[in-house]
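Q: What structure does this chain adopt?
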Amino acid sequence: MEFIRRANVPTSQTPLRLGILPGSFNPPTIAHLGLLEAARPHVDELLCVIPRAFPHKHFHGATLEQRLEMLLAAGLPAECSIAVSERGLFSEIAEECRVTYAVPLRPVFICGRDAAQRIIEWNYGREGAIEEMLLRFELLVAPRGGHYESPAPLRSSIHRLSVTEDRMHVSSTEVRERLRRGEAWEHLVPEALVPTVRSLYPNSGTGYETPK
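A:
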């Protein structure tokens, strides 16, 4: 894991509750900021992570360097670090964080209802896999088209995050699609990023290709 920015927060808590928001940030949106602001009271430190490799899809669009520059300019909370991870799965990112921080750590992944549902319902090829994963990290889940109702055996590791729905419907894909169609998009990204997004995504597509 390579840090681009380290938050100046105390690390004396045992274990350190690290709120991790992974994503492509292609571009960063008001939903990303909303998630970080809502999660801040629940963790000791925040961390935005851009994986170098995304599971199950090929990425194209703004370069890694450009996306990092946008994150640095987006107005993230002072308690938020920024890093690049080598892999993209939650379990892999959690392990990278443990090695990099080298302190007792409790990773807490920040996500929306749709992402939580994919993680919990994914076929990992063996029974009990998700239960084992949730011994190593927790989920802080924001509503997106409703709250996620977790299975009873997993509820101690899955927590609700209160974020207004008007922010959570926003996605980076929507921003790029609005740009492509010539529709208003400026209200969906942090104000400071409007000029940069306009220059980087003049005729944006989806930003992803399905593996062939």
